[in-house]
Design a protein that fits this description.
The complex is a heterodimer.
Chain A (H helix, E strand, L loop, with lengths): L1 H56 L7 E4 L4 E2 L7 H10 L3 E2 L8 E4 L3 E5 L3 E3 L2 E3 L3 E7 L2 E7 L4 E2 L2 E2 L4 E5 L5 E2 L10 H11 L11 H14 L9 H10 L6 H17 L2 H11 L1 E5 L2 E4 H10 L8 H10 L12 H17 L5 H9 L16 H11 L5 H6 L3 E4 L3 H18 L8 E9 L5 E5 L11 H4 L2 E2 L5 H9 L10 E4 L4 E2 L5 E2 L10 E4 H6 L3 H11 L1 H10 L18 E2 L1 H11 L4 E2 L5 E5 L5 E4 L5 E2 L3 H17 L16 E6 L5 E7 L3 E9 L13 H9 L15 E7 L13 E7 L13 H14 L1
Parallel strand pairs in A: 1-16, 3-4, 13-15
Antiparallel strand pairs in A: 1-12, 2-11, 4-5, 5-8, 6-7, 8-9, 9-10, 14-15, 16-26, 17-18, 17-31, 19-24, 20-23, 21-22, 25-28, 26-27, 29-30, 30-31, 32-33
Chain B lengths: L1 H18 L55 H15 L3 H14 L4 H13 L3 H13 L5 H17 L3 H12 L2
Helix pairs in contact in B: 2-3, 2-4, 3-4, 4-5, 4-6, 5-6, 6-7
The chains are: A alpha+beta, B mainly alpha.
């Protein structure tokens, strides 16, 4: 009992104790909870701080590799028309003025163009902005003068940017440092976006209060109170999510960023991070990229009205897109100009003049929409041999390519026009094409068109369409024979007569000529010029199909094909790029030169990483190769390509070869002058017939291009081992210059025919006729 | 009778006019290429070439095309070659080769360009490349024995360096025979 009482008393005491201790217990729980919260908060802060510093100290952005065209080189004697120089300047975003008075401007007169170039970091060194005067004489550059009137032997413009190699997240930017940003841009940005930037610690309570008040009064969000630091934090680390949690993190991280880094670093990061536009799938970030995207020039060349427009766009790149919403953009630009006046960055007079100007935005640059997809495929193919994809996408490498935008645009135009024209015939509906142009001397790829619609980034026929090459193979059959110089020459008589081959499995092969006729005995030169199937097939069987394939291998085409006789008439499939390489080497007088689309790669800072210089290897005796390539002139003079001389002048030396496959499924032409070689393919993707021969299809597109290119004759230096002789074009026997039917042909020394043909003197014939008439 | 003789004379003159070959009028012997730009005002991107069968007869008698002794580097290329040489002398081989590529674009058929490329490759101990470039220079020496000899002598040095003494001897023998 006592025990129970005791217990009861104890219980009462305990209850009293409990009730007296309750507030302090809650207090304790509160404190404990606070400590836990504090610990969590501190942990969270440590985490945020680490995040802030890790990203800011490390590599802040993935910078896509920038890909450039060749720089336009100017020197006395170079074939260049003034309009092409102006087209290049326009592509570079140069402003035409009455006087070239600052970098990125030019003035054009009747015979001369004055250019104030921009500085540029080339692969072989940095070049400062300079003023030059380019004088023309007809269609070549006559002389180049510097501003003091001194003649220069050489000058160049900076190259056109043709694209980039973009990472999956598709952000495009050109890094600029604070020194490169015009002062006005920096100050206008601060004036408009964050006037107290230099005095706050990352967040500005006053600005937030002001913005909140303005938003309450308007009943909607009309003003933001974010500092530049907060905007940077949001874009750099966080998302666009509208929540208190995000806002809190943003504020904390802004404080931390300001604690660790100075204002200059923060402003520089902002200038490179800010989203300023969209080019297809790619975001345009930072002022460096945006100034190229909207004005085609470097940020350091911007004028005050252009600076105002870029600052205006910061508020909303989509809403104030100057291309899609020019009125809105202009209104906001003018507002920015007013604020610049207020901050004494501009005089009122200057602002009035700026407001009177249009937006001055260039059409979307071609590179922004992957404008040269076919060429870029070749570049990427070559780059990935030496560079990892992630480095190309993130290290800001500078890739200097061989693309010639002037040739490229002419090639695109010519191919698409020809296809449209040919499609008027119903059999040609759905026609497609590809075209590649190279520099004859160096193997540099100047232009690649992979689709009738050149900027379509789909199936790249230039690289991927493997098609039968038809008669394009014939020069290689002839060349293989010519390698046996004691047995075969261009004057060797060949039988152009029908024959039939029977195979062990019972199959038969009996080739026919295009015109269905046979032509008796013809010399090798004539068989090539007229693209005679029977004579070529007989010749190829004499020298052997495997040997013909060996020649094709030697000249650079890696083909896996069984040595069937049909190969001799082009039953082997190659891509237009492979055909280009084959012919490039065929006309290089025995030297094989790999095609190149890249000249050099440097780091973002300009340090040279790779140089892709000219390389060559002799694979065929130069004399024999010279004789083989001579045959291609006769194709154009008197053979299947002769139609071009209705348009081209007689004394302009070009060579080439047509190719047509069975049922007109493929129309090929490869032709060259002294400067350019171009391969053209036309056909349908489903391999159905087209109704086009090589000369009625591909040759037309080729001619369309070559009418616009400098007319530089192809006159190779004859190797010492070659001599010329007059032969009778029917019999192939030795003749003389004045004999009827005589043609001059090149031979390896000592291999010209010895036996003489009967000679009827051309002059005598005429004289006899005139004397008879005179005396009658 | 007089009118007939006049007609015959006219025909004679006309025929002479027709047999005039512009090809023979082509450039000076040292000029490797003839350059002309189309008139941009009249050029059209597409020109109709009628469909055609192969000709039934080979065309007009062919005149031997213009032959050139060999192309010499243009004034601009000479300056670039000089710059390349001074770069190579100071060991800036990458710079030298980039300059030589530029010289090649200016005077692509000038053997000097390739011979100088060969020397830079030799300095970098890329003997195979140097050998091929010497062969290219020889192929472009045309009818200039002095340049051919110079190129063959360089070839001999390169072949010696790569350990091909038989090839070097052959090149020296050829050079001595010039």
């Amino acid at each position: 009992m006592s025990k129970s009482r005791k217990s009861s008393t104890g219980s009462r005491k305990s209850s009293a104790k409990k009730s007296s201790k309750r507030p302090s217990r809650w207090k304790s729980v509160f404190w404990k909870f606070s400590v836990v919260l504090l610990v969590v908060f501190a942990g969270w802060c440590v985490y945020l701080d680490a995040t802030v510093r890790h990203k800011f100290d490390g590599k802040r952005w993935q910078i896509p590799a920038q890909v450039f065209a060749r720089p336009l080189e100017l020197y006395p004697g170079v074939a260049l028309v003034k309009s092409d120089l102006q087209a290049e300047l326009a592509e570079l975003g140069y402003e035409r003025k009455t006087k070239a008075d600052r970098p990125g401007t030019y003035a054009a007169g009747s015979y001369a163009v004055e250019i104030y170039s921009r500085g540029f970091q080339f692969a072989d060194g940095n070049e400062k902005a300079h003023r030059i005067r380019v004088e023309f004489n007809d269609n070549t550059v006559d002389q180049i003068l510097d501003w003091s009137g001194r003649a220069l032997s050489w000058a160049r413009l900076e190259p056109v940017k043709i694209g980039g190699i973009y990472p999956a997240q598709q952000e495009d930017r050109i890094l600029v440092n604070l020194e490169q940003l015009p002062d006005k841009l920096e100050q206008a940005l601060i004036q408009v976006e964050d006037r107290h930037f230099y005095s706050h610690y990352g967040v500005s309570p006053l600005s937030i209060a002001r913005a909140t008040w303005a938003n309450i009064r308007a009943g909607r969000v009309v003003q933001g109170g974010s500092t530049l630091t907060q905007q940077l934090v949001k874009n750099f680390y966080l998302s666009n999510e509208q929540s208190l949690w995000r806002k809190a993190n943003e504020a904390l991280m802004s404080l931390m960023l300001e604690f660790h880094y100075d204002k200059g670093e923060i402003l520089e990061a902002y200038a490179n991070e800010i989203y300023l536009g969209q080019a297809g799938a790619r975001g345009i970030h930072g002022f460096g990229m945006a100034s190229h995207f909207y004005f085609g020039k470097s940020v350091s060349d911007l004028t005050s009205d252009q600076i105002a427009l870029l600052v205006a766009i910061v508020k909303g790149a989509s809403y104030y897109d100057p291309r899609r919403h020019p009125d809105r953009a202009k209104e906001r630009r003018n507002l920015v100009l007013d604020q610049m006046v207020e901050a004494k960055l501009l005089s009122e007079k200057q602002a009035r003049a700026d407001k009177a100007r249009g937006l001055g935005v260039i059409p979307k640059p071609r590179y922004s929409a992957s404008a040269y997809p076919a060429f870029m495929d070749v570049v990427k193919q070559q780059l990935t041999r030496d560079y990892r994809e992630e480095d190309l996408e993130s290290e800001g490498l500078r890739v200097f390519t061989t693309l010639d935008p002037l040739v490229q645009s002419k090639a695109e135009h010519s191919l698409s026009e020809t296809i449209q024209q040919k499609e008027q015939a119903s059999v040609n509906k759905g026609l497609q094409g590809a075209m590649i142009t190279t520099a004859v001397s160096s193997g540099e790829i100047l232009a690649v068109v992979g689709d009738r619609q050149a900027d379509f980034s789909g199936f790249n026929r230039a690289l991927l369409a493997k098609r039968q090459i038809g008669s394009l193979v014939k020069p290689f059959v002839m060349l293989t024979a010519l390698k046996h110089s004691s047995e075969y020459t261009l004057a060797s008589p060949l039988e152009d007569e029908p024959f039939m081959l029977k195979f062990e499995n019972g199959d038969e092969w009996s080739p026919k000529n295009y015109d269905g006729e046979s032509h008796g005995t013809v010399i090798m030169q004539e068989a090539l010029a007229r693209s005679l199937n029977l004579a070529t097939a007989r010749l190829g069987l004499q020298v052997g199909v495997p040997e013909v394939l060996d020649t094709i291998h030697e000249l650079g085409a890696d083909v896996e094909v069984k040595p069937y006789p049909s190969v001799l008439l082009g039953a082997l499939s190659l891509t237009p790029l492979q055909v280009t390489e084959l012919y490039q080497n065929l006309i290089s007088t025995g030297f094989r030169t790999p095609l190149r689309a890249i000249r050099a790669v440097t780091t973002a800072e300009g340090e040279l990483l790779s140089r892709y210089s000219f390389d060559t290897e002799q694979v065929i005796d130069p004399g024999i190769a010279y004789i083989g390539q001579y045959g291609l002139f006769e194709v154009m003079r008197s053979g299947t390509g002769r139609g071009v001389y209705r348009t081209l002048p007689e004394d302009y030396y070009v060579g080439g070869k047509t190719g047509t496959t069975d049922d007109y499924r493929d129309s090929w032409f490869v032709g060259f002058n002294g400067q350019y070689l171009t391969a053209v393919w036309m056909g349908k993707d489903d391999n159905s017939p087209t109704g086009l021969t090589g000369s009625s299809g591909a040759l037309v597109a080729w001619l369309g291009l070559y009418r616009q290119l400098p007319q530089v004759s192809f006159i190779p230096t004859a190797p010492e081992s070659v001599e010329w002789a007059w032969v009778d074009q029917k019999s192939g026997l030795l003749s003389a210059e004045h004999c009827e039917g005589a043609v001059a042909l090149p031979f390896m020394i000592g291999t010209a025919p010895k036996e003489r043909a009967g000679c009827v003197d051309r002059g005598n014939l005429l004289e006899r006729w005139l004397r008879r008439w005179w005396n009658s | 009778m007089i009118s007939r003789r006049f007609l015959a004379l006219t025909v004679l003159l006309l025929v002479h006019g027709c047999t005039y070959s512009p090809i023979q009028e082509n450039p000076s012997p040292t000029q490797g290429t003839t350059t002309r730009q189309p008139d941009p005002g009249t050029s059209s991107p597409v020109t109709q070439v009628p469909e055609e069968k192969p000709p039934t007869r080979i065309g007009q008698p062919v005149t031997k095309p213009v032959e050139i002794d060999r192309e010499r580097p243009s004034a601009a290329a000479v300056q670039v070659l000089a710059q390349a040489e001074s770069s190579a002398r100071t060991g800036q081989y990458d710079q030298a080769l980039l300059l030589l590529d530029r010289a090649q674009r200016m005077s692509p058929q000038a053997g000097e360009v390739y011979l100088q490329m060969a020397r830079v490759q030799y300095d970098q101990r890329s003997y195979n490349k140097a050998e091929q470039l010497c062969l290219k220079a020889i192929a472009l020496s045309g009818k200039d024995p002095a340049f051919r000899k110079q190129s063959l002598q360089t070839l001999a040095i390169v072949r010696d360096a790569k350990g091909d003494s038989a090839g070097a001897a052959a090149a020296r023998k050829q050079a001595a025979a010039i």
